[in-house]
Amino acid sequence: MENAARPLTLFNSLTRALEPFVPVHEGEARVYSCGPTVYNYPHIGNMRAYVFADVLGRTLSFKGYKLAHVINITDVGHLIDDADDGEDKMERMAAAQKQSIWDIAEHYKQAYWADVRALNIRQPARWTIATDYVPAMIDFAKKIAPQHCYELDSGLYFDVSTVADYGRLARAQTEEGEGRIEAVEGKRNAADFAIWRKTPAGETRQMEWDSPWGRGAPGWHLECSVMSGEVLGFPFDIHTGGIDHREIHHPNEIAQNQAFCCTNGLSVPSNSGAKVWMHNNFLVERSGKMSKSSGEFLRLQLLIDKGYHPLAYRMLCLQAHYRSELEFSWDGLGAALTRLKRLVLAVAQLKERAGDAAQTAPGPKFAPLLDKFDAAISDDLNTSVALTVLDEIVAVKKVDPAEKLAAIAAVDAVLGLDLLDLDRAALRLRPKGVEIDEAEIEAVLAERKAARAEKDFARSDALRDELAAKGVEVMDGDPLGWEWKVG
To answer: E strands, 336-436, where?
Structure first.
């Protein structure tokens, strides 16, 4: 399959149009993704952004580009409600937990990385940690300050009137966005934002540095401009993030990039610092448990604790287009798990049939389907259609099982469901706190199967009741042949 023969088309939030991907540097794809602020565990809505960015990266690799993907870790500078005045999210959590801010950052960074691994998200080329780049942030601010910034008692502020087309990415500030712009006394324009926040007189922060504008900390928006430019160079190819960043954070990044690169208006998209800006839509959960302020919010570990394999959540994300809202429900997650189980069973059966056959390439019978898959993924990462093509590949009959496995592997290299390595045992429904001896269960099931073959239904029922008493539900008649689950 000539992966690069069909152009990859992506939706650019800056132009609000589908555009063929043309890299800044031939044969390369440079991508920056806004990463987490590590003040708390990420909720599953946060993680949708990284599943999307992972599919984008996998698609660029599939298309033959040399990928340089950067994801940042924000451990300083992000204020409550993304505002310009008030508490730093990291400082607040450190005070609440009575721990050092550095310990808080390390704990939640590791928790985020655990979720990345659980969702089979590939490692980026570079993780950039905000506090490692503070000297570079100060140098960046020193360059743009004379023409674009002014100083107030609270810090250094960017004057958005000094760059052309400010806010074009957002097109119009939403009501939600307007509510997040804090009124700071002395600001020239309501949308002006902090580049450097001075530590208030008489206070000491755990994270603060000396600067030409006083001791303090960088603004959140400055961090991403500096880290993306330092590692990838301006302009780079693609900047990704959640749709909530489209209204304030990313327009502010763009303004800083314009100032630093001395570029003009945004009719030339690369003047923004990136040629393409891409945003995934929200994951919607009707009970309100997507908010971290709600206490027990929906994080990936909660799904695992309830017996759902994390790749069932990845499947759920793939079933919707990244630019569409995705509603979360337990029924929907259960259906995604069932779909994943079917694929895992199909692969297991193919492996058994293939035996020790040498690894091969997809046969000619799969060429039209692989081309159909390429068309779907090239159409702005249409994973929902791509999944239906995967189902069609699995359904092909009378073919060499090794060739079919190769076709599945080619598709899964983009979808990232780990189908060739994920096994049936890993998908067992096993809620937290339930201790089971699988060998014992399988032995009882084997005995029960023998009893049913001998039409000893009393013995069969007794064995089923024995398992039920241990919390194991025997799934007679399950079309997937899963046989049992822990209730």
So the answer is: none
